[in-house]
Design a protein that fits this description.
By secondary structure, the chain is an all-alpha fold. Among the domains are: about 140 residues, no CATH class; about 70 residues, no CATH class; about 150 residues, no CATH class; about 200 residues, no CATH class. The protein is about 60% helix and about 0% strand. It is built from 38 helices and 4 strands. A two-stranded antiparallel sheet has the order 1-2. β3 and β4 form a beta hairpin.
Length: about 850
């Protein structure tokens, strides 16, 4: 039976493998091509392997199984395949520095079929982490192959080799950050091909203080000191200074640097500055940081005529684009005022450019020609492609929405093993609980690793777990890392805004712009929503287990932001379905706190303005809370960044509640997520006091009564509009305002009723009163709500199709009317020839009456008195 099963398995696997590898117990599948007589039967493969090891298996059976490639020792077979993979990798890439993410490409002719899809990078990492457990013969086999036990040491040697090669080719080791060693280039050693040398040099500088003295000596020995510059800021300063001096030399005494100017890769530009972007913003930053700049750098800039005191820092695109025409003029070098004025175009300061009259005329002409260009650029709006500030903020908000979408997707697919034993449905999965650790692992990782490594069964379970869950762990970690990067990018944007990086924009004028205010508020709002949803949808203990599992699988060196991700994912004390811990979520929000000024300005904007301009859509005063619902959700989340307002500022909270929550206290915070303010704001004195007015029973009675009346009147109107024969084309066009008002009112009522149906049985902040719920239940009728919902949707559907039909026929009707008008005008023209009567005239009582009345009025006219007096 075993031989028959093995032969069938060989025929199935022949296209992807040269071997037949069975698990310890194999159950024959109930599908073709397995024989029906064998389906469902279990074969003890481990027993057969044990018989072979003991030498009691018949020779004929052994030979037959060998002929089809039966695997007698699964662990040894896996080891053999790994060694084969390493040999193949070395033959292809000339080294064994296998990246962690490297996977053998499928269907690659240079790789054995049994290696297709093998995650070789993961396997190499596991071998290194368990080097002390390898048998001596296996370790010797790897040593003979040239296996890299310490990847950092060999990587450093390769970097030094690459730096030496770079020095031979370029004469220095000032490697640009984006430089990458070319592939298959004869001037470069094969071990260096595709190495991101610029990034590697940057990393060496960042870790300079942690490098051993021997490694620092190796780098310093690359050439004359200080050829390898440890301080990249000092290197950048020297490069910028030389580039400025060369720019001044090339373009004459006056220097205006375009925003997108790139240093040419030709003489006389310094070779190490080739392809460097010399941006006018760099000069602006120098002015802003003048007070903190060293005296030495001050003197260096003044030596080339740098202007420190300049009132208006505005980049004029027209002047910058005309640099070549300015430079083409013959400047009088002796009369030239050697000043550098970058990013300026104010006519009051033209003399600062050059004293030569001819060049002044050129610059004046350029300024006058570009005044309208600048105005056009400003009129393009905050979201124009040329507006770096608007585009940066727009991309940030777009990323935030994408991250939240991924968070919601993944939160619905959390493996139960990460949530705890209570969520594990499959008993086979419980064995993984012993190798899943929380952040306690980080305090003493050796203890936890020894616990796993000392137990052979746990090692197998650990390998099995990583193999089964690696992909989902990678997605979750990428999610956590993306959230952290979003937070950092938002904080970086705020920092750039504060320091004047975006010359034409600051926090105040962004909030004065409609698009800018919406995007800035949403950027901060999405930041808060990410934190809330992360804690609500992926519990803290599950996050910690995921991060540690991924950390153990990848290794610390492969995770760039592991410390920050741990800080983000650390448990907060909150668990879904349990009471909130004290000072939650404000303490959670302070882990990566945004600037207080940004939070304050955003809250002020949301507190007083209609950010989304919804008044035309909801003009009625009773619809105010619906009109402001979107920004009320934003305000609710953003207030957690300023808990002092919720706790202490009673007047501010009273204003917020009166404007946004005067008739509602259950709101949507994000798609599918609802917040009950009577619960969420209960721990905050100022917020609780302000919301108490809304929760008063007398106030709620009036609100429910108004909603009942609105619901009844809406049903009457909807019933009339939906009566057969009412919604004709003419009726729709003449009563469009009434129809839309009915739909608007019905939707507002439906929204309020559905949201507040989630009201608690008792409200804690109102002394656990249950009167509010009783008032709501008494005043609302579920059957009436369903009727209102169905009729509203039916009317919306009918109106939608009527409008679609009207719009589809609009062009034909327009053309018909044009043709009819032209024909009638032509006929009227022919009528006045006196030769042709009007043939298109049909009897029209209205026109008969109008012309008769007009005739009578004409007869009653008399000559004005003033005209008679003149006669």
């Amino acid at each position: 039976m075993l031989l028959e099963v093995v032969q069938i398995a060989r025929s199935i696997q022949s296209s992807t493998s040269d071997y037949v590898n069975f698990p310890a117990r194999f159950t024959v599948p109930d599908v073709t091509p397995w024989p029906k007589s064998l389906r469902g039967r279990t074969i003890q493969v481990a027993r057969v392997r044990r018989q072979f090891k003991d030498g009691v298996l018949p020779t004929a059976v052994v030979e037959a199984l060998n002929n089809v490639g039966f695997v007698w020792d699964a662990k040894q077979h896996n080891w053999t395949l790994r060694v084969l993979a390493l040999k193949t990798y070395k033959s292809l890439y000339h080294n064994l520095l296998v990246p962690y993410e490297f996977t053998v490409p499928p269907h690659a002719a240079t790789w054995s079929r049994d290696l297709w899809g093998c995650k070789l990078g993961v396997a190499v990492t596991n071998i290194r982490s368990r080097a002390h457990q390898l048998p001596p013969d296996r370790k010797a086999e790897l040593d003979a192959l040239g296996f890299v036990w310490d990847s950092h040491e060999l990587t450093f040697d390769i970097k030094v080799l690459a730096l030496n090669t770079y020095k031979q080719l370029h004469g220095h080791v000032h490697v640009p950050f984006e430089f990458k060693v070319p592939d298959t280039h004869p001037s470069w050693p094969p071990t260096c091909w595709k190495l991101k040398l610029g990034r590697a040099v940057h990393d060496l500088r960042c870790r300079g203080d942690h490098l051993t003295p021997e490694r620092r000596d190796v780098l310093d020995a690359l050439g004359y000191v200080p050829l390898f510059v440890w301080d990249s800021h000092e290197l950048n300063w020297d490069m910028k200074l030389q580039a400025l001096a060369t720019f001044k030399q090339v373009f004459g005494g006056t220097l205006v640097v375009p925003q997108d100017f790139v240093v040419p890769s030709t003489a006389p530009w310094p070779q190490r500055s080739w392809s460097m972007k010399l941006v006018g913003q760099a000069v602006t930053n120098m002015r802003f940081r003048a007070d903190s700049m060293s005296a030495e750098r001050h003197a260096q800039l003044e030596a080339i005529g740098f202007i420190w005191d300049y009132p208006e820092l505005r980049v004029d695109a027209g002047v910058l684009l005309q640099i070549k025409s300015i430079a083409a003029c013959e400047f009088d070098k002796e009369n030239t005022n050697n000043h550098i004025l970058l990013g300026s175009s104010n006519e009051d300061h033209i003399n600062a450019f050059n004293d030569d009259a001819s060049s002044n005329r050129i610059i004046k002409a350029n300024i006058s020609n570009t005044t309208s260009d600048r105005r056009d650029l400003m009129e393009l709006g905050f979201l124009a492609e040329e507006n770096d500030c608007g585009q940066s903020l727009l991309r940030l908000v777009s990323r935030g929405s994408a991250i939240i979408a991924e968070l919601l997707r993944l939160s619905n697919n959390i493996p139960g093993i990460f949530l705890g034993s209570a969520f594990v449905e499959d008993p086979e999965q419980r064995k993984y609980l012993d190798i899943l650790f929380d952040f306690a692992y980080l305090k003493n990782p050796e203890e936890f690793e020894n616990r796993v490594n000392s137990d052979t069964d746990l090692l197998d379970v650990d390998d099995e777990f990583m193999g089964n869950h690696e992909d989902i762990l990678d997605r979750f970690y990428q999610l956590f890392d993306s959230i952290y990067k979003y937070i950092q990018d938002f904080l970086a944007f705020c920092d750039q805004l504060e320091k004047g990086f975006f010359i034409q924009h600051n926090l105040a004028n962004i909030l004065l712009n409609t698009d800018g205010a919406q995007l800035l508020c949403e950027a901060l709002y999405l930041y808060g929503v990410m934190l809330l949803l992360l804690d609500q949808r992926i519990p803290g203990p599950a996050r910690e287990r995921m991060v540690i599992a991924f950390f153990r699988n990848k290794g610390e060196s492969a995770l760039e932001n592991i410390d920050e991700v741990c800080k983000l994912c650390r448990v907060t004390g909150f668990l879904p379905g349990s009471p909130k811990p004290a000072q939650y979520p404000e303490r959670y929000f302070k882990r990566f706190a945004p600037p207080k000024e940004v939070v304050s300005m955003v809250i002020g904007k949301l507190q007083t303005d209609d950010v989304y301009l919804q008044e035309p859509a909801f003009p009625h005063r009773d619809h105010r809370s619906t009109r402001l619902a979107a920004q009320a959700s934003v305000l609710y989340v953003v207030l957690y960044f300023a808990p002092d307002i919720l706790i202490h500022e009673k007047s501010t909270m009273r204003e917020i509640v009166d404007r946004h929550f005067n008739d509602n206290f259950i709101i949507t915070t994000y798609m599918g997520n609802v917040a009950d303010l009577s619960l969420e704001w209960a721990p905050y004195p100022a917020a609780r006091l302000a919301l108490a007015n809304t929760l008063e029973v007398s106030n709620l009675v009036e609100i429910v009564k108004a909603k009942m009346h609105t619901s009844a009147s809406s049903i009457v109107s909807l019933t009339h509009f939906l009566t057969e024969g009412v919604l004709t084309e003419q009726y729709v066009l003449e009563n469009i305002d009434a129809l839309l008002d009915c739909i608007r009112t019905a939707n507002v009522t439906i929204r309020w009723t559905i949201l507040h149906s989630r009201m608690q049985e008792t409200i804690p902040m109102m002394n656990h009163s249950g009167d509010q719920r009783r008032v709501f239940d008494k005043g609302t009728d579920p059957d009436r709500l369903v009727t209102l919902l169905l009729q509203t949707s039916q009317l919306e559907w009918k109106l939608k199709h009527e409008f679609e039909r009207l719009l589809a026929a609009k062009e034909d009707r327009w053309q018909h009317c044009i043709n009819e008008t032209c024909d009638r005008l032509s006929e009227l023209s022919e009528y006045f020839t006196g030769e042709k009567p009007l043939t298109r005239v049909e009897r029209n009582e209205d026109l008969i009456k109008w012309f008769a009345d007009t005739s009578a009025k004409v007869r009653q006219q008399y000559l004005p008195v003033t005209f008679l007096w003149l006669l």
